[in-house]
Design brief:
By secondary structure, this protein is of the alpha/beta class. It has a single domain (about 1-230), classed as Rossmann fold (3-Layer(aba) Sandwich). The protein has helices at about 1-20, 35, 40-50, 60-65, 80-85, 100-115, 150-165, 180-190, 200-210, and strands at about 70-75, 95-100, 120-125, 135-140, 165-175, 215-220, 225-230. It has a seven-stranded mixed β-sheet. Helix 1 crosses helix 6 and helix 3 (about 40-50) crosses helix 8 (about 180-190).
Length: about 230
Amino acid sequence: MEIESQLKSIEKSYDRAIELGRKGVDLYKDLPGYITDDPDYLQYEKMIREEGDSNSGRKEIKEYLSPQADMTFIDLGCCLNLMFRGYDTWPSTYHGVDISGKTIELLDEYVAEKGLAVGSLYCGSVNDTPFADNDFDIGACIGVLEYFEREFVTSAIIEAHRILKPDGRFVLDIPRVGSPECRIMMMVEAHLGRPDRFDMSSHEFEDILRNYFNAERKDKAGPMTQYFLRCKK
C-alpha cells in the first residue's frame, strides 16, 4: 500500500506539472526561500544552468545505446524525453512508459502533431509493463528510481531485465546521496510533492544490479550516478 501511495503522489505531481506547463508555468523557477537561500543552492543552480534539469539528454546515453533503425527502445519513466531530449530523432522504434496520464496525453498529442512513428506510449508503472519477455534491444530508466525504496527499485530492475533482450544495452541512474547537489535536488522534489525515498548505498544497489546486468561503466551526472549496463541472460 505504501508503494501505491508513492506512485499516486508521483502521478499527481507530474500531472500538475504538465497542466501548469501548458499554461507556461515552470515550477522550478518559483522555489521557496528555504531552498534558494540554502548555501548549496548556488552550486545546484549552476549545475542546472550548465547541464539542464534532466540527465536524459546526455550525449553519453545515445552514444552507449547506439540506436539503429532495426532496434526497439524502451524509455521507462519517459517524462517528456521524446519532446525535449532528442529521442524523437533516434532511428530506433520508441516505446515510452510513464505513471503520469497527463504526460502520456501530451506525448500522444506531440506524436500526432509531428506525424511520428512510435511503437507505443503506455501509462503505468515501470515495474509492471505490458511488454513481452525479450522485447527490447536498448532501454533507459532515468530520473525514476530515486523516488522509491529497495523493494520497488528491485522490482523495477527485474522488470527491465525481463523485457530486454539478452545482451541488450540499458542505462539507468540513482541519486548520489550525500552530495550537495543531491541534497538540494531532494529538497526540490519534496517541495514538488514527490519526495525521494531511495534508501540504499551505491554498494547495496550494485549488489542487486549484478544479479541481472553487467555494469560496463558508471558516470557522475550532476546529483545522480548513471550506470551503463548489459543485460545478463
